[in-house]
Amino acid sequence: AVVSTQSTGDEEAKTEVLIEKRRVLASFGKLIAYNIIEMRLAASIFAQYVKSYQDYGDIVKHIMSKARELNRTKCMRTQLLSLEQLFEELRDQNEGRIDRSSEEWTKIKDLAHRFALMAGVDNYKSRQAVVTFHREGIIYCLLRNGPPDGNPPSNIVFFDILAETTFKLMDIDKKGPKGLLAFLEEQLMREGEIPEDEIEWGPLRTYKTALVGSMQEPYAYFSQPMKRKMVGQSPMADVKRSRDAEYMVDNWQTPGGSGNYVQ
Questions:
Q1: Is the pTM of this model over 0.70?
Q2: Count of Cβ atoms closer than 10 Å to residue 11 Cβ
Q3: CB 3.0–4.6 Å: which of 4, 9, 108, 165 could bond 116 by disulfide?
Q4: Is the dihedral of CA 99, 100, 106, 107 positive or negative?
């Protein structure tokens, strides 16, 4: 009985800590929703969307939704920054190399695909934001600290991430006279001649193939929704959780209670 009571107390303490952390996160979301702080400061929060989905995913998703309402382009720039942060963190952990078959890399690509899905079903509304995401992503992929030396840029593997989101681009923005293929070729002119068969340049070829359209929705197998239902939780509990997140971010009050999170 003593062990049972202690276990119950531990669970209650953990629940209280989780509730408080969710309140803090929702309070941070208020700063974004009311344009009080720069949206780019939310990049580290966006980066944790998949990793912390079970406990905080509903709030993070709603913060991104409010950010998109404020400015679609800024929102996608912030999402791009979050992917760059995850990429650099993983690369640093592996002494400057990325294993393209690793689970960690797959998770970052998964996150990129989900960000693209969040842009909405109306590609016209998100057109400028998605194109900006890709143009700035291309520049990041080809970024160098010095002149070309025959080796690929250190960020070359990030083209894998961009390839995850090409399905949101309109054809004219891919292959038009001022499209991303033309922009990519313009940027590549600085690299000189690129070997077609070197494996190090593989991510670039993957991205170009995705833009040309010879692939059918690259990496479409990541489009399945994540399962976040807890054991013993009914489908309606998921709905209630989502509504609670919206209430927290929009009203900044405890669901079912009173008082603002931020005074």
A1: yes
A2: 10
A3: 165
A4: positive
